[in-house]
């Protein structure tokens, strides 16, 4: 399994995806096809944290009046399943590894992964 969860409207996602040869990868546009419970469970197995998958920059946080510091793992899980913008993106998911988000360390780890494969 090789999947990339992303948003077509996200410039950062497009820029990161353009750096890699994604032949053989399933590209999932999460606005059109949201993450399923099973996929989220697979991501959780690799991160051991719903919070690690949660985008604290989502516009939905302010719209819903959420206090991120008071959220539990259960809250993060429910929110991730409720609205696509709560997923930190892009997410590159393989059978063995996961790369979440767009910070420099994650992109560097992704580059090392692609260079090694």
UniProtKB/TrEMBL annotation:
SUPFAM superfamilies assigned to the protein according to its UniProt record, in alphabetical order: Thioredoxin-like
Whose protein is this, by species? Chryseobacterium phosphatilyticum
**What family is it from?**
Belongs to the ArsC family.
Secretion signal, residue range per the UniProt entry: none
Instruction: State the Gene3D superfamilies in the record.
Output: Glutaredoxin
**Coiled coil location:** none
Protein known as = Arsenate reductase family protein
């Amino acid at each position: 399994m090789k999947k990339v969860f992303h948003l077509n409207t996200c410039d950062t996602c497009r820029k990161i995806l353009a750096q890699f040869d994604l032949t053989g990868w399933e590209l999932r546009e999460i606005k059109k096809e949201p993450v399923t419970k099973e996929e989220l469970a697979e991501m959780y197995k690799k991160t051991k944290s719903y919070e690690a998958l949660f985008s604290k920059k989502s516009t939905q946080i302010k719209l819903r009046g959420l206090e991120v510091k008071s959220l539990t793992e259960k809250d993060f899980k429910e929110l991730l399943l409720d609205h696509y913008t709560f997923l930190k993106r892009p997410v590159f998911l393989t059978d063995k590894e996961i790369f979440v988000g767009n910070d420099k360390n994650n992109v560097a780890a992704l580059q090392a992964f692609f260079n090694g494969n």
